[in-house]
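Query structure, 174 tokens:
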């Protein structure tokens, strides 16, 4: 499958005597996407602040990074006809964010949006509208008094639930 790296190693063993030609095969399957998404406290706070400015709407944005890391959050205006139930990123805002990412040496690593009154899991509409494969979709639920965030790797066909950790701010403020 294209979501996995495959590696095979084989060796010949001469032990025990009389069975000199036993072939030992090691087959390892490694998922391409990391096991846990790590989000800095700074980025989490930026997304939370954005969400809480308009808690009744689905807010959205892009995450840029390099080397498998999320470096920056780019809020984008939701221009959907019904922003209470879905999101559609402003095309001009997307283009501008992608230009800034390019200038910073970043690439698109994630898409963020909120669910004002449902769980932090992709909806059928989210799957239907997903266009960027091999990145993470981060969904924040404001359904309860304490916001919850979920991370989902999109392989082009389906979302894979991925553990997420919010790292405490470092001494450098990152």
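Result returned for the query:
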């Amino acid at each position: 499958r294209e979501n996995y790296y495959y590696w095979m190693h084989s060796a010949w063993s001469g032990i025990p005597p009389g069975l000199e030609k036993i072939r030992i095969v090691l087959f390892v399957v490694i998922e391409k996407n990391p096991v846990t998404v790590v989000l800095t406290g700074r980025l989490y706070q930026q997304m939370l602040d954005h969400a809480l400015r308009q808690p009744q709407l689905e807010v959205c944005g892009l995450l840029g990074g390099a080397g498998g890391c999320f470096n920056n959050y780019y809020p984008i205006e939701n221009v959907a006809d019904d922003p209470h139930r879905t999101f559609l990123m402003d095309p001009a805002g997307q283009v501008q964010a992608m230009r800034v990412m390019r200038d910073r040496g970043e690439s698109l690593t994630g898409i963020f949006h909120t669910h004002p009154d449902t769980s932090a899991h992709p909806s059928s509409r989210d799957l239907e509208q997903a266009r960027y494969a091999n990145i993470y979709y981060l969904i924040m639920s404001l359904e309860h008094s304490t916001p919850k965030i979920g991370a989902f790797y999109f392989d082009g066909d389906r979302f894979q639930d991925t553990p997420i950790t919010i790292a405490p701010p470092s001494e450098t403020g990152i």
